[in-house]
Specification:
With 156 residues, the chain is α+β, with helices and mostly antiparallel strands. Helices cover 16% and strands 45% of the residues.
Length: 156
């Protein structure tokens, strides 16, 4: 109850900042501590504001190792250091639904990882999203953080 009230107060303050953003969000920070199997030239999220029904993480870059079955996309979101969003997806299932089934061959790639946001997502709050994508072989493909005020709303 108390937490809900706090969300409501800070949420209205964040609203105008969130509403000002349009298009896609590209200011990701690479948080991997070692080389990754995917070398990104661009990581972006769209639409902005994020859409509950379907949000896309678009990855452009080079893949050193094919993406195989068992790859996972783990998404977390933090609001004021609190874990408020968590979702782990079967990456190959998501990619297959987007028309690019695994295996994804090594080399230059553009991948659209489009999926619904979970309904537990707080709406209109500044969230720091973190994407950790691991390959079927257990290797790290990508670890990126979006440090911004992104919220998920119903699609227009
Ligand atoms: C991009 O993110 C970094 C790290 O959070 C931040 O310092 C910088 O101001 C951001 N740039 C833009 C254009 O928002
Ligand atoms: C992209 O990855 C492939 C496969 O590992 C490699 O042969 C190629 O040199 C890489 N290209 C660049 C530009 O890094
Ligand atoms: C987010 O960016 C702000 C400003 O650039 C910075 O002070 C803060 O430490 C960053 N937070 C994280 C978790 O990277």
């Amino acid at each position: 109850m108390k937490l809900t009230a706090t969300f409501a107060i800070l949420g209205s303050a964040a609203l105008s900042m969130v509403a000002a953003q349009t298009g896609s969000f590209t200011n990701f920070t690479n948080i991997a501590t070692a080389p990754t199997q995917f070398t990104a030239t661009s990581v972006s999220l769209s639409p902005v504001p994020l859409c509950v029904q379907k949000t896309c993480l678009t990855l452009i870059g080079n893949l050193s190792t094919p993406i195989t079955q068992g790859a996972r996309n783990s998404v977390t979101g933090r609001w004021l250091d609190r874990l408020v969003y968590t979702d782990t997806q079967d990456l190959c299932a998501v990619l297959a639904a987007n028309g690019t089934p695994c295996p994804i061959a090594a080399g230059a790639i553009t991948l659209n990882v489009c999926h619904p946001m979970r309904s537990m997502t707080p709406r209109n709050f500044p969230i720091i999203y973190q994407y950790i994508i691991t390959n079927g072989d257990g290797g790290l493909l990508l670890a990126q953080r979006a440090n911004t005020s992104l919220s998920a709303k119903d699609c227009p």
